Amino acid sequence: MQLGGDLREPQSESNGMPKTGTEEEQMLLTPSSGKIIADHLQITEIQVEVERAVQQVGKELGARRELEEEKKELKISTKV
């Protein structure tokens, strides 16, 4: 089964495994992905769960980015 729409394949290394390590994490699904998944699986209840998960992950990634920016700013200010 192949899903279309906003879903994207995760980037992978030449061995087919997902990239890991120091690369910045990114969202693979969008809020509209919930409807696409629900339609393809014919499970309407899953749309809300996917949307909620996307929102939670988005908040977590945003918080991590802010924390990284604060760390960078602290390093810069302590060097001066």
Q: What integer is the average pLDDT?
A: 79
Unreliable residue runs: none
Radius of gyration: 17 Å
H and E order: HH
Count of distinct structural domains: 1
- Sheet with most strands: none
Shape: rod-shaped
Q: Ends: how far apart? A: 56 Å
Number of strands: 0
- List the total number of helices: 2
Query: What percent of the residues sit in helical stretches (DSSP H or I)?
Result: 40-55%
Helix/sheet category: mainly alpha
Can you give a write-up of this model?
With 80 residues, the chain is mainly alpha-helical. The protein has one domain. The chain is built from 2 helices and no strands. α1 (33-41) runs antiparallel to α2 (46-79). The termini are far apart.
